[in-house]
Specification:
By secondary structure, this protein is α/β, with parallel strands linked by helices. The protein has helices spanning 11-19, 33-39, 56-60, 80-85, 98-114, 116-124, 150-161, 186-192, 212-217, 235-243, 287-307, 340-351, 379-387; strands spanning 2-5, 23-26, 45-48, 67-70, 89-91, 142-146, 165-169, 181-182, 195-198, 222-226, 247-252, 276-278, 328-335, 355-363, 366-373, 391-398. It has 13 helices and 16 strands. The radius of gyration is 25 Å and the shape is elongated.
Length: 399
């Protein structure tokens, strides 16, 4: 089977997949929709990061595609409903780069509070500006975290250790860490925070979450950080509030429109502004994080393709089947309707196979059952299941 990895995914992913028997092609850039349509026939596994979009058209052009690995946190660049409809598993790395993102945000809070970006620029220009004007400690300041998930909670812990007071807002019911305080509304957080840091996901409802209205409600001379999703923030409104002096500084790692390849021109209304840090979507781009992501996602892809395991899939039912050491396995993805499991077991029993393990789960309209046996699953069982009107796909594995 062939794996296509895009956007300069860590070499460890290549090593793992090749070690499991895959033919791997590694590209350093993303591919456009047209390029993907042309490249995917014959490809079983696709690895991407945040700049490659897997649309319904792309999925339709990939009859051999088994799974998509997002070597990052977000999966909004993939048509998840379309992938599930076609039985294509999608995996991501929800935990592997959280520390890297948090360390970047902590560093940006300090740099913005001390106005170090401006100091550095002046020093490179030969200007000695030894002044404390506008420079502050972060100790005792209030950090407002919008989105209290994996990254938000870890940021909360580190920020408290550095003397920041932490408040947070999340639409989900999240447990407060340490002395962090939950805010009932986003407006309440904006009124109280000296620093606002966004850590929301890429769901469509978050598009345009932060615009002129939200910036106007922030405390005068507060700081703003976005290391979440580019489409969440209206950058034109942010520019206006920085120029007016209402926002004292900002750090942006993600943007509504990002260049597709290394060296492409970056355009943004935030370019050239004082005390604004612009970084090229590198929140999770540390060697440690990329290696961990490469290891994690590559193993999820191989585990699904070679053993039918769907642990932590974001679109298919999650079945935590053990690694297949010896024996035979049947994987059956089907519509979530009554009687499927009984039919599977009856067919296997009639064929005389001895079942030694069975694992199943349902998610929405889909169900998935994995059955292990000591004997090879007879061809007539596979054919009967494939002919069922509720079958999405049926596969077997033998070790």
């Amino acid at each position: 089977m062939k794996a296509l990895l895009l956007e300069n995914i860590h070499p460890l992913a290549v090593e793992i997949l090749e070690g499991r028997g895959f033919e791997v092609e590694l590209l350093t850039r993303s591919l456009s929709e047209d390029e993907l349509v042309e490249a995917l026939p014959g490809v079983s596994l696709l690895g991407i990061r945040s700049n490659t979009n897997v649309t319904a058209r792309v999925l339709d052009s990939a009859p051999d595609l088994l799974a998509v690995g997002c070597f990052c946190i977000g999966t909004n660049q993939v048509d998840l409903a379309g992938a599930a409809e076609r039985g294509v598993a999608v995996f991501n790395a929800p935990f592997s780069n959280t520390r890297s993102v948090v360390e970047l945000v902590i560093g940006e809070i300090i740099v913005l509070a001390r106005r170090l970006a401006e100091k550095t620029e002046k020093m490179h220009a030969g200007v000695w500006d030894k002044s404390a004007q506008g420079s502050h400690e972060i100790r005792g300041r209030t950090l407002g975290i919008v989105g209290y998930g994996n990254i938000g909670t870890q940021l909360s812990n580190l920020a408290e250790a550095m003397g920041l007071r932490v408040i947070f807002f999340d639409t989900a019911d999240r447990l407060a860490h340490g002395n962090a305080q939950r805010m009932k509304t986003l407006d309440e957080l904006l009124e109280r925070a000296d620093v606002v840091s966004l850590h929301v996901d890429g769901r469509p409802g978050n598009a345009g979450l932060f615009g002129a209205e939200q910036f106007a409600k922030m405390k005068p001379r507060s700081l703003f950080i976005n290391a979440a999703r580019g489409m969440v923030v209206d950058t034109e409104s942010l520019r206006e509030h920085i120029l007016s002096g209402h926002i004292a500084g900002a750090a942006m790692d993600v943007f509504p429109i990002e260049p597709k390849a290394q060296g492409d021109v970056f355009e943004s209304p935030l370019r050239g502004l004082d005390n604004v840090i612009l970084t090229p979507h590198v929140g999770g781009s540390t060697q440690e994080a990329q290696e961990e992501i490469g290891y994690f996602v590559a193993n999820k892809l191989a585990g699904f393709a070679l053993e039918g395991r769907t642990e932590l899939s974001v679109d298919l039912p999650t079945v935590s089947a053990p690694a297949l050491q010896t024996g035979h396995r049947l994987g059956y993805l089907h519509d979530n309707v009554p009687g499927v499991l009984a039919a599977v077991n009856q067919l296997i029993a009639e064929a005389g196979a001895n079942v030694v393990g069975q694992y199943l789960a349902t998610t929405g309209e889909l169900g998935y059952v994995v059955t292990d046996s000591t004997e090879a699953i007879p061809a007539q069982v596979v054919e009967a299941l494939a002919a069922n009107e509720h079958c999405r796909w049926v596969r077997t594995w033998d070790v």
